[in-house]
Each structure stands twice: as C-alpha cells, then as structure tokens.
Amino acid sequence: MSYISHNGEDLGKILAAIGIERPEEVFSSIPPALRCDADLALEGPKDEESLRRDLDFRASRVAFAGGGIYRHHIPAIVDALASRQEFVTAYTPYQPEISQGTLQAIFEYQSMMAGLTGMEVSNASMYDGATALAEAALMALRIKGIRRVAVTRAMQPSYRRVLRTYLAHAEVEAIVEVPFDPVTGQTDLVALEKSIGPDTALFIQSPNYFGVIEPMEQVTRIVSNTAGFWGIVVTEALSLGILKAPGEYGPDVVVGEAQSFGNPAGAGGPLLGFFCTRKEHVRRMPGRVAGLTKDREGSQAFCLTLSTREQHIRREKATSNICTNQGLCALRAAIYLSAMGPEGLKKTALQCAAGARFLKGLLMDKGIAPVFSAPVFHEFVIPMLEDRLNELKSTGIVPGVLVSEQYPEIPGSVLVTVTEMNTQEECRWLAANM
Amino acid sequence: MAGSEYVTCFPEVREPLLNLKGGPGKNKRLLPAPFDTSGAHDLPGTRDLPDLPDVSEVETVRHFTRLSRLNYGIDHGMYPLGSCTMKYNPKITEEIAARLAPIHPADTEAMEPVLKRLAQLQDHLGKICGMDACSLWPAAGAHGELTGMMVISSALKSRGEHRRTVLIPDTAHGTNPASCTIAGFATKAIPSGEKGYLEASILRQHLDQDTAALMITNPNTLGIFEQEISAIAGLLHENGSYLYMDGANLNAIMGITRPGDMGVDCMHVNLHKSFGTPHGGGGPGSGPVLVRKDLEPFLPTPRIVCNGSGAYVLEEEPYPESIGKVHSCLGNVSVCIKALAYILSLGPRGLREAATTASLNALYLKNRLKKLFDLAYETPTLHEFVLSDTLQKEGGVTTMDLAKALMDFGFHPPTVYFPLVVAGALMIEPTETEPLEELDRFVRAMENIAAMSREEPEKTHESPLAAPVFRVDEVWAARNLTLTWPDKRIQPEEKGI
Amino acid sequence: MEIPEQLYYTEDHEWGELEDDLMRVGITDYAQHELGDIVFVELVEAGTVVAKGDPIGTVESVKAVSEIYAPVDGEVFEVNGALTDTPELVNQDCYGEAWMVVLKVNDPAQADTLMDARAYQAYVEAEAK
User: Fold this and answer.
1) For residue A26, pLDDT beyond 90
2) What residue spans define the domains of chain A?
3) CA B466 → CA A104, B6, C119, distances in Å?
C-alpha cells in the first residue's frame, strides 16, 4: 500500500519545477558511500486484508490481573469521541487559534484531575505513573535542602525501578526504602518516622501495591511536619472515586496512573501519567499545562501557558525534557469522567471494592486467607505458587500478577484484582480452581 | 465571532466549559454492577461524591464533538510543521492496534504474539537504521533522547570515565539540552558552519577529554544532510566520544541511507513522525532507542527474547549493566504496533518511495516559494526547508503574522521561530503524503499572504479572522494563571473574560 | 528608547542607581522592549550575598526567560515585592516603580567599572546591528 497521491503526470510536473530528471537526484547531497542501493530486508508491502490476518491479537476471557494496569468498563462514547480524527490527527496545540478543541479538553482534564485528587493544579499528562513519580522526585530535588528520596517498599516495584533509573543520573545522596509490616501489609510507621527528615522527599503509594490502603491519617501526622517534601502516589485512579481525595492530607504532589479512566489495558500501554500539585510549586512542575485566556475580542479561549519552564525555552535549565506526552489518553480520561459522572465513578469504585470482598469471602470459605490483614481497595495478595499460576494461565484464566518475583520476602504469592468487569461466576470459577 | 464574509472550514461554535453544563441527576448511565456493595462499607477514609460534571450521554457527545470541530488535523489538510513530520496516518493501523485493547500485560498467553511483533519491529527498525539493537520502551522522542543519553552515561561509567560534556550543534532539536541535563550531562552549544551543516573542522576545536558525545540531528532542522557526518564520527571515536543521532528527521532518509553506516553509536526514532502514527494532539508518541553492539548491554529492561521453545518472552534479568527500567510497563505498545503495521504496509520500497517523495514535495515548495520569501540557506535540502520573514519585516509583518494568516487559508502554519539559527524562521515540511493540488493550494495561499504583506500589512496583524477564535492572548493567560475551571459559582464574565 | 543620564549600566542591560552605599537595580528600557510583555518576575531573597555577575532574579515573557545579574558585589538589602503580582510594571515603568532589588554595595567605587548613559547608548546601538 502506498499513501502517496502523485500519478506520473504529477511527478513530471514536480521534477520539472525542481529542475531534475529522476527522483533519486533529490539525494545528491548525501555522500554516495553512505547510500544503500539494495532494498532493506523488511517484510511487506502488504494489503490491508493481509495485515488484518497477520496482526491478530486476542485476550484471555477471564482475568483477575491488575497491579498497576486495570481492566475497567469503557463507555462506548469514549472510543467514538476520542477516535474523531480532529483529535487524533492534530499535533500539540502550539497554534491555539486552531487547536481550541484539544486545549479546552486538556483544561477540562486538568480541572477534573485537580478536583479528584484534591490538589490545586494538574499538568496535561505524563508518560505513565512511574515517570510521573520520577519527575516528582526530580522536582523535589530542585528545592533547596532536599537531598534524599524515600519511597515505601509497598510501592509498585516497577515505579521504584524507574525512579532508580532516573535518580542514578541526578544529584541525590540516598534513596531509602521504607519497609512494610509483614502482617498488615501497611507501611511500617516506626521505620517511616526514622527514614525521613527535612532533607527528604517521601513518596507513599495508597492503596499500595498489595491493594492495601495505607493509614493515611497517621502517615500525615508523621510526615507533614518532618519530611521536606512529600507526595502521594495513586496507581489506581478509580480509587479516587470512593477514597478521600489525597490532597486533603496536604502533600506537595499527588502523582500516578490514570489509565483506568477510559484507557484500555492495551497490552501494557499507552498509559496515562498524571501530575497534580499545589499552586506554590506550579513553576517547578514538569510538563505542559493549558490555561484559560481570551482572544483579541475578549472571548473565552485556551492556550498552553507557563511555557518558559519547558525544554524548548529554558533549554538545559528546563523543569523536565518532556515534550510529547499522552494527550489522547488524557482526552479519553476527560470523556470517561464526563460519561461516568460523580455517581457513576463512585458506584464503579464501590463495585470494585465489593467484588474484591466477594472473592475474598469465597477464598476464605476454601480456607485460603489473604497474606495481609489491613483493609484493601480492590486487590489483595493470596498464597499461590508460580507453577499453579502458570498452569491456570494456560487454561485461559489469568488469576493475577506474580508478587513473589518482586518481593522474595513473600514467597509463593499472587496479587488478585477484581473490577466491575469480573462477574460472580468468574470469581466462583477462580475459587474452585485454586 | 469571526466575520461572516470569510469562508472557513470551521463551524462557528463556541462551547462552554463542561462544568457549566448538566446538573444533579442528569447522568442516567446504567453501569455494570455484578456485586452486592453492602459488604464494601469497611473501606476506611471514604469521600463525598466526587466533584465531576453531571451530564447526560447526549450532552457529553455534543460537547466533545463540538470541541473536535474547533481543531485542525491532518485529515483536514496540509499540516506543514517542520521537523514534526505530520504525514497522513493510515486508518488500518488504528484498526489493528485497537485489537490490543483488552489484553492485560500479565496475560502471558495473549502477550506472546504481541511480543513477537514487537521483536519484529525492533528488527525492522534496526535494519532501517543499520543499528544492532533496539529498545521500544521510551514513550516519546524526548524520552528516547533521555534513555539514549543514560545509555551513553552508563557506558562511560563502565569504562571508568567521567566525561560530562555533550556538544549540541545549533541546528539540533529543542529537547536535546534538557534531555542531557536529566541524564546528568552538561551541554555546550556549537555553531554549525556557514553552509548550515556541522563541519568537522569546527567540531575538532571543541573536542577534549571531557566530551562524552555529540548529539546531532541528521538531516538537521534546516533540512540539510550533515555531509561531513562520517568524518565527524571518526573524530569523535578517535577522541573516545560517542555519536548520538536524533532521528526525528529519519523520514527523509529511511531506505536511502542508514545512521549505522554513518558511524552513529546511539539514536532514537520518533514513530509518530517517520512511521505514520498519529500525534493525538500531543501524544502518545513513541521514541525507540537503537544502539550499536557495544552499547547493547546498557539498554533498558525488560528485554524481549525468543526462548528455547521459540516463544517470545520478557526478561528483566540478567542485565547487570542495563540502565534499568524507563517505563512502568512496555512503553506505548499500541503505537509500536501501529508503526509496525505501517512499515509492513509500505514494505522496503514503499519506505524508500516515501522518503524520496518527502524531499520532492519539499523541494517543489521551496522552489516555488523562494521567490517570495527569504530562503535562509542555499545549501541543498531534503524533506524540509527554512524561510524567514526578512522580506516582510520591513513592512512590519512578522513570522507570527504570516503563520496566523495561513490559518485563514485553511492551513496549519509551519513551525515558527525555530531553528534559532534563523531569525524569524518558518520551517516547512509538507511530507510525502500531500497531493500536488494541496501543495499548489499552499503556494497560492503563501502568494496571497506575500501580496497582502506588501499591500496591506496591517491586515496580517489581525489574522486569523476565519479561525474559531481571534488571536489568542498568551500574555493574559500567563499573568492571570487559571489552570482549572473556576468555581461553578463564578461566571466567566466576572473573571474579566 | 529611554536611557536616563544619572544611572549606571551593564552589558546585560541592568541599570543601577547609586546613593551612598545603596544601589537600586532594575532592567533597562531596551531590555524590557526586547523581552516583550513581562509575565513573571522572580527575585532572590533579601540578605543574599552576591558578587558582580551573580544572578539576582529572572524575568519571563511568554516566550523567553532572562536572568538578571548583580552589577556590583554586595548584599541584597531589599527586593521589590510588588513585581510578584504586577510584573507588567516592568513594561510600564522600568526605571521607576519596577526597580527590582536594592543592593548594599561593598565598594561604591566599583560602580565606575559600569557604563554611563552615553557608553550604554553606543553599546545598545552596536548590539542592535
């Protein structure tokens, strides 16, 4: 397939206008020694039907997998609206007069994310929750006096690893992991208190990787007067529909993953990192942001603002190098939140929580107790050997995500997640197959 | 509103913010409810009803449909943003990628064919670039730059060296300095030569034992092929430094010449530029990193490997020299699959034809426009070229005016005020997918604007008149920072809007 | 372009007005014009000790950021808080209300190393070319 529109006549006109005889002459400025004359050994060209046949992908029907990426109901209007080509085929809205659709949608996304997290400001998006966390740590390290970063060990392992990748190249004195209580699955508050100080930026995830809700009131009491900077990480944005807005605990940032808002699991991506903060930090915030303004005649309009923080203006002193972000995923989130509404988001979050409790009950009846005792949102860790997990996967049921791989201290454990996409029947089936 | 005498491709609609719509109980969506929620009341620390708009399905559909009509996309017309490669995005690639939607990455059975195709993309990108290894996880071009520079930093460390300076020519991409800073390097800008490309003799003066790498864009942002690239690579390697290539402009040379043959050690490509995946109004993109054999140990994890039984799996271990993870999962997987579908759709000859036609279209425009606008460099160019407002500025017409005036002719403007080496730059990249008729329409628009600049320069300051809004006040936005919608109780007019 | 007679000037387009050992510092008319509409001003805290050429703040327009440098050695004695909320003062009255900091200078004689109005005029004209 070719997407070039010229026929022979067009090509003739173009060559004549340029003043060359053969198309290849356009490459006369490339040294001959560097040119490849033979065709590259690539597959193709293929017609559309061949592509459809060759690139065929299918998911298992039954899945209880979460761990940072979630399967949730996506209303039909999300795909219908977000696939409008006016949104899909537009570039970054650098020319506001003909990008008001993208800009207003970003502004609405920012407004809803700030509202849900209980923060004052949201940026236009980050690559994913892990890079949002890494950028939050870099932002903290630019504040005078912050030299250490502490993260809870109960935080999503991949987030901690991305954080370490970024911080390996930054000026940081130490990266500390705060242990969790092996009985409750919550962060060890005594250890927490010892790990932080005015030179420390602390990041805590709640609900944490084990699905366990952290004791945020107590955490806040310890952290708010001690840590130089602190952030709450939310890897399941849907929890914002039912749990108290993290901003109410007074952190400097709330960052994380909003894939659950209208974006599919998608074999792992694209994801949707979000970054919310307080007004006082807005000039340190990474990433793009859309602002309200007016046009020459005074009508309401939107444009990208605070651009002087960004890489194309402040160059090597920029707050981040992020440029292209996850714009269309943020649009999907805005449409999703509009489609769900306040009641819908809350009800769906409750469904998830109820589903996890339903499955937990079935497992308890079979004598399988969760590994941790503290209350969870919609996922929990159960004892299960890796071999059994793989056996079940090969029968077309994905019981969850292997935990012991990342946490050798919890051998033979799997994180199971229940969402509104699972049914009671599926839960019974899983329980019966344990 | 825009004057009615102007023909416009935009509807004359103005859409209020979503929070001013709807009201309690308007949203009547029936949602999946498989579980009895009475047992879920042990949740600690719950909230009141979240503060979200309560609107009906029809209102949501109308709202976002109206917003979409305030946008300009490639499917409307030519989008000649230089170095952004806004080419047509084949619909079949969207259809294919949508099949990934229900797959959870923990679903190993379902992931196997996906990984197999990702491995094929790595292989194909490697062949297109003449590089030995590839990582698909960086989620955008700047993320790829950062990953690549981290790879170089780790490689230097493993050699026991502490080189800290990265040289960046003034014709490189805007993101390069910031990416280097986050990777822990200091940057130093170096001037390209008078001909618009970096001369080896200039580079030689800047090399020393602290030089970690040169970060070059080839073809550069003037659209010029870096003719001394082989000599430059030789100098760098002799000095123990690496050559990093920003592959944002790969579209111009794919199938024609390979960065690996030029001596490039590490590079990234932008799938959302060269390989036809849509930009989505600001992403998701994808910025895979490619390296030569000696840098492969430092690439991010996980790696895609084909195990003993012929199945494709992910491996986190053992890669002790890897820089580690750069994304919580697998980057923008669906973008990668779209890019693969694009490559397979075109095949090797199609890619070559795309690169050739990209240059043909750009040269066609350049030859027709250079009579009307100042051409910054006479050096031969490939897929893009840079004009400036030098001829129009005398009458008080700036590049910004020219850009806004183009909107009234139904075009998205080119990249403006970049690259910085050209004052008042207009960087034009039509791409290969523009039909001749559209190129001609663009030339006519530019001719009209040039005439308007001579005869009625003040009129250009008023443009655009046919866009959904008049010229937007970016100064007001910055002075009255409002980043979330105002409290429902405050009406917009009270904010002075 | 306005270049008041009695002031000292730097090559980075700051002006300084010396009164005993206090120097009031701001940016010149030429600088505010080149930057365009100023949307944000950030200044160092009072009490900061600076050497000539050290940054004492940044001025931002929509498309550019510019650092402001200390014209002489000294200690920041006072900063103009009004600029936080009304950065547009820099465009309106750069030599008056939009002063940025007052430095307590170590050696008033150091001011003689700066340009006078005539020298600055020539410097700006040369730079404009």
Assistant:
1) yes
2) 62-71+342-432, 76-336
3) 19, 6, 49
**Interatomic CA distance for residues A293 and B343, integer angstroms:** 42
Q: Does C55 touch chain A (CB under 8 A)?
A: no
CA-to-CA distance for A13 and C93, rounded, in angstroms? 58
Mean pLDDT value across residues B20-36: 95
- Name chain A contacts of B175, Cβ cutoff 8 Å: 311-312, 321, 323
CA dist B146 and B183 (Å) reads 6
Share of chain B above pLDDT 90, in %: 89
- Nearest residue, CB atoms, B474 vs list C40, C62, C88: C62
Contacts of residue B74, defined as CB under 8 A and 6 or more positions apart, other chains included, come to A85, A89, A90, B86, B87, B88, B89, B278
Residue C129 pLDDT grade (very low, low, confident, very high; cuts 50, 70, 90): low
Positive or negative: CA dihedral B430, B436, B438, B442: positive
Cis peptide before B219 (omega within 30 of 0): yes
| CATH architecture label of A62-71+342-432 | Alpha-Beta Complex (3.90)
Size of interface A-B (CB pairs under 8 A): 694
**What's the pLDDT at B497?**
47
Residue C85 pLDDT more than 70?
Answer: yes
Q: Cβ C62–B417 below 8 Å, yes or no? A: no
DSSP single-letter state for residue B65: H
Q: Taking the domain B91-343, which CATH number applies? A: 3.40.640.10
| Closest Cα in chain A, distance from residue C65 (Å) | 6
Both tokens of A33, joined, read 């020694």
B475 neighbourhood in chain C, CB within 8 Å: 37, 39, 61-62
For residue A289, the distance in angstroms to the closest alpha carbon of chain C comes to 13
What pLDDT shows up at residue B4? 36
Rounded to the nearest angstrom, the minimum Cα separation between A164 and chain B is: 8
Distance, in angstroms, between A99 CA and closest chain C CA?
Answer: 18
Instruction: Name residue B214's beta-bridge partners.
Output: B167, B243
Architecture of the structural domain at C8-128: Beta Barrel (2.40)
CA distance B241 to A194: 44
**Interchain pair B479, C62: CB under 8 A:** no
Minimum Cα–Cα distance from B80: chain A residue:
A91
